[in-house]
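debug: dumping io for the single-chain case to check the tokenizer round-trip. Nothing else runs in this session.
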Amino acid sequence: MAQPDAAAQPDTAAAQPDAAAQPDTAAAQPDAAAHPNTAPAQPNTAPAHISTAAAADALVRLGLPANTASAAFRPVIPGAHASGPAMPITHLGSVDVLLETIAEAQPGAIMVVDNGGRHDEACVGDLLTLEAKLAGLAGIVIWGCHRDTAQLVDIGLPVFSLGAYPRGPIRIPPAGPAMRTAIIDGIPVQHDDWVIADDDGILFVPAASAAAVRESAASIIQTEQAQSQRMLDGASLRDQIGFADYLAERAANPTYSLRDHLKARGGAVET
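debug: decoded output
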């Protein structure tokens, strides 16, 4: 009887603060993006791809041979661009060597087909091109002709050749293993040489020099893009490269060349 009734005890649970009412400490933390010491992400200024023109200038700048294929090469699709390690082969009349190469090629490779510069047959058509695309190849270069042009355009894989010809090979190929070499317009192409092809032509860069050429070409592209933007902003190319200074120096020293001047100033009109 002397014990207090349980119902009369104070409701301690009710006296506890509601968890929902506690301050939201997570919300109170500063946003990392707003922290003054957080550096903003830097834009990627690397070019999307290296053009043959920039690569050719890089070869000159580095003192390397310019292994440039014949100007007779044309892309099946205007505006196409392809670059990657070479998978060279010699076509002797049968497509088996092409299928073998596609089966063995790594994704991103360029199949380089030496068909002797022939204009009397087409050694690559729609089925082989589609097979190459589905296998992950980045393009096909043919020292010879292609066919099925409309279908090749639809397939979309970059193909470069000497032109179109409707008839396929009718030669009887010699027996023997596939030849995994190619000589394109007199240029020996080795496995894993860097191939770069676009509307301006085709270059073959030895594998050992590829990284240096890509780095130099990217620098050239970035310099030219910056010069172009300054031209659009009102600064003429002549002003940017100090052309008046060059003319004055040349008048005093007839052996002084524009290349000498640009080398000193860092311009990219010519190499």
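debug: round-trip ok. Confidence is low (pLDDT under 50) at residues 1-44.
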